[in-house]
Design a protein that fits this description.
264 residues, alpha+beta, Phosphorylase Kinase, domain 1, Aminoglycoside 3'-phosphotransferase, Chain: A, domain 2, 2 domains, four-stranded antiparallel beta sheet, three-stranded antiparallel beta sheet, 9 helices, 36% helix
Length: 264
């Protein structure tokens, strides 16, 4: 991986061509994911380059696919270029106007913020999904977990971290036995947390980091939002957020989606 102040020196030709006319400071904006992230600017545009090797995180191709499908449905980054070279992926996307809602500058009116975040999530969940190509229903998540166990990605330590016990296979069998029923899937962001929601002029301007997106249970987003609102705004704002959503939480369902995260 690149050091935080080191710019990528050698890029595939397709990516180099897409970045022609752009410059970068080389600062790595990497966060909790395994992607290295570099900001490039030209005279009239800002784009971001993500570089990711083989890791526990979803491949960048999934994020690309989600953004392509969402392009005419939701305010998400535009895919400029994607390239895979062996185990390494490169993804260039446009920037979304505004700043991340985790920024203190967005917290002057927390009531308005949580209402805006709730309204934006309702908008996401209302998207038609008849032709959505990405399945994130409970059965699909369990199938993905089994694949990741077979590939040696899921470890016993990861299982313990989410409060489960036994081998990864035993823990996943336990989750399968108590999978939540899902009558009506919706489109889900998959990681609906404040760092991934952009704010401009005090309102939501768009959404980033869509590698976990797909049709599934709205509780996937409730789980992430509950944790993120508590962490970034304070526990006292969790209630107002879900009141604005019109949702009374089922904590067993919240916990299931927290536990399945150990498997991908």
């Amino acid at each position: 991986m690149y050091r935080e102040t080191e710019r990528p020196l050698k890029l595939p030709g397709e990516i180099e061509r897409a970045l022609s006319g752009f410059t970068t400071s080389g600062e790595n904006y990497k966060t909790a994911s395994e992607s290295d992230v570099f900001r490039y600017t030209s005279s009239d545009q800002t784009v971001f380059l993500k570089i990711q090797g083989q890791t526990w995180s979803p491949p960048l191709s999934r994020e690309r696919n989600a953004m392509v499908w969402l392009a005419d449905k939701l305010s998400v980054p535009e895919v400029v270029a994607y390239h895979r070279d062996g185990d390494r992926e490169y993804l260039i996307t446009t920037a979304i106007e505004g700043i991340s809602s985790e920024n203190d500058e967005c917290h002057g009116n927390k009531q308005h913020l949580v209402e805006s975040l709730a309204e934006a999530l309702l908008t996401i969940h209302a998207l038609p999904i008849d032709d959505c190509p990405i399945d994130k229903t409970p059965d699909a998540l369990l199938d993905e977990g089994r694949r990741r166990i077979d590939d040696g990605i899921v470890t016993e330590e990861m299982v313990v971290e989410v409060g489960l016990s036994g081998s990864p296979s035993e823990a996943l069998d336990g989750l399968a036995a108590r999978r939540p029923d899902l009558d009506r899937p919706v489109f889900t962001h998959g990681d609906y947390c404040l760092p991934n929601i952009m704010i401009h002029d005090n309102d939501v301007s768009g959404f980033i980091d869509l590698g976990y997106a797909g049709s599934g249970d709205p509780y996937r987003d409730y789980k992430a939002a509950r944790y993120s609102v508590k962490r970034n705004l304070g526990e006292e704002w969790v209630g107002p957020f879900f009141e604005a959503m019109g949702v009374t939480l089922d904590m067993q369902r919240i916990n299931w989606y927290g536990e399945i995260e150990a498997f991908g």
